[in-house]
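Retro notes
What went well: the complex prediction finally ran end to end.
Inputs used:
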Amino acid sequence: MSFLRRPTSLFRPRRGPDQSLLTENRALIEDIDRRKLLRGAVSLGALSMLTGCDIAEQSQVQSALRSVSSFNDWVQARIFDPNKLAPTYSLDQVVKPPRFNAYYEIENVKPVDLSSWKLELSGLIADKRPWSLDQIHALPEQEVIIKHICVEGWDYIGQWSGPNLRQFLTQIGADLTAKYVAFHGQDDYMESIDMASALHPQTILATKYAGEPITDPFGAPLRLRTAVKLGFKNPKWIRAIEVTNTYPEGFWEKQGFNWFSGL
Amino acid sequence: MKKMHPVVIRVMHWTNAIAMIIMIMSGWKIYNDEVIFGFLHFPDAVTLGPWAQHGLQWHFFGMWVLGLNGLAYLIYGLVTGRFRRLLLPISPREVIREALAAARFRLQHADLTHYNAVQKTLYVGVILVIILQVISGLAIWKPVQFSFLTALFYDFQGARLAHFFGMTAICLFMVVHVALALLVPKTLLAMITGGPRVDDRPARRRASAPASNM
């Protein structure tokens, strides 16, 4: 074919683009709807003319700050010592009940229906069979009395118990060399943590607070409690755990909070 | 003979000024999310970022600028002898005498190239407060990895309190510093143009230097 005999341009890359990029980002590419893009561009242009303020500049600052935040993720992963234990406290320092926090008020908590609840598993896990609550309760329990530190600045000491996450991940045959563990809540809350923090000795799937089953506002029947992350990285009302190498982000990160958020 | 404020000092000074303003204004935004004192909220007009997360983004960007610039400044000041030459010695008696003179608006600062005892105290003081501020900041950022730092302030809330008071001290310094610079505008000018030329060699070497070299 004459096409093949055409001299290659100096500017043409010797190797074509890596096709795996296309498959990896298929969802993203499919998401780029041309019509939506056009509509977005038109309304963005109109908006900038209306307000007289430079939206492009605003978003440039925002994207620069987000890049710094990603760099800080990397730095924090370097600072993180997998063997460094968080300070623990005595029973009499435990606050009862724990402090409520969510992106909505306590009255709006929708209790999990325990009769139908199952823990779903997905991603890089060998045995993806779902777990019943009884099965989880049958696992060895670990208790941690640790500080919950909120990104806002408040903190309290809590007494949490439940299966150790490292043991659980090992038992279900999760790929412990994967990068991320994501936790999907019953509400639309999702948070992900790095594998090293998931494997930290003070990271548990909590089922109890102060020796009693966790009550509805605090994440019943299952929530994450890790001593090495800020409060918002500890999702409540967990219904699924996913092990993955694809950056899953999280509820608060989408709004600009730092992803690693390690203590 | 080089200028009193070599260009590297001027660049570091103004970098620090901008970084410090970013840190304070974004810090106020973060503070507002969970106030320490019920009566104190910082108005939105003086905080950085529309929401707390943006305040945090600015704060964790500013920390690199402040920290790296500050580190360079400390190394420069120690290695070149600038600190020893300009900031030391501080005699307590002189500090008291000059503080009283300053209170009566009689403090002299005719020779720009020599700091009076009040200036020396303020400059050394603010450097130490900023170092402490970095330490309490790290204690808040990493209360598990750097738990030994957090323990210096009793606990996490102690570190927050120390960080707040450090900010207060730096703000007070800035008020005095800016007010005095405006009262004696040539000091402000010197931090832009470099100021008069000075002999920055140690006194010992200066005395023994042959006259032809002067």
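What we learned: Residues 180 and 195 of chain A are 5 Å apart (CA to CA).
What to try next: split runs per interface for comparison.
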